[in-house]
Specification:
- The protein is an alpha/beta fold.
- 33% of the residues lie in helices and 21% in strands.
- The chain contains eight helices and eight strands; from the N terminus they run ααβαββαβααβαββαβ.
- The strands form two sheets. A six-stranded mixed β-sheet has the order 2-1-3-4-8-5, sandwiched between helices. Strands 6-7 form a two-stranded antiparallel ribbon.
- Strand 6 (202-203) and strand 7 form a beta hairpin.
- The model is unreliable at 203-209 (pLDDT under 50).
Amino acid sequence: MSDKNYYKKIIESRNTLRSQKISDELAEREVFTLFELLKYFYNKSYDNKNNIVVDVGCGDTYLKKFFEKKNFVYKGYDLDDLNIEKDKIPLPDNSVDIVINVGLIEALENSNNLFLESRRILKPDGIIYTITPNWLKDYKNFYNNPIHKKPYTPNSLNQAYLINGFKDINILPGLRCKPLWYYKGPFRFEKAFYLVPFNRYEFFEKRVYTKNFWRKLIPGFLKGHSRSMIGIAKK
């Protein structure tokens, strides 16, 4: 099966087996976390209605609604729109406030074009935001996904940003909606992996997200258990 068909199957099964309510909650948490981290680490807030976010590898654009609630113009590009390892993103230079890619770079043989194109379309001091598995915490599972090609560590993602001209880089644990102390310090990845022992959602054999009574008794700050990382940088 080609990568393109695999992606389509994943999106189809996700839409079938995950309720709209759960999908919306996950998307809202993703967008909320992004803006909280930008506010804390970069002192950035977006108050006008002329901001643009580009979602590369957008899939079914499930984040769109929540960016639009933040008064962003949302532009999503996926496999049917361009080959991100080769093609130009069809937008002018210096025109975009934020470029995000979620679960994308690990499926690319080479991410340089993605980073260079992201930097080209970003405004000065615009933000790139990447989420990818942290090989140091997920090496046992990484190649269980048949389209995963290239793993990243916090250091290698940092170097990829540097090589492609980004600055003010922060590589953080892939947690959502957590107190800021989880994202800080030299042992932040260990804190996020070992001190957050519970996943927010149970994922059963039928691939259905559920929440039950007993899990509601676990405080939110103990849910997360991060095997991924978030990379943020400025143009």
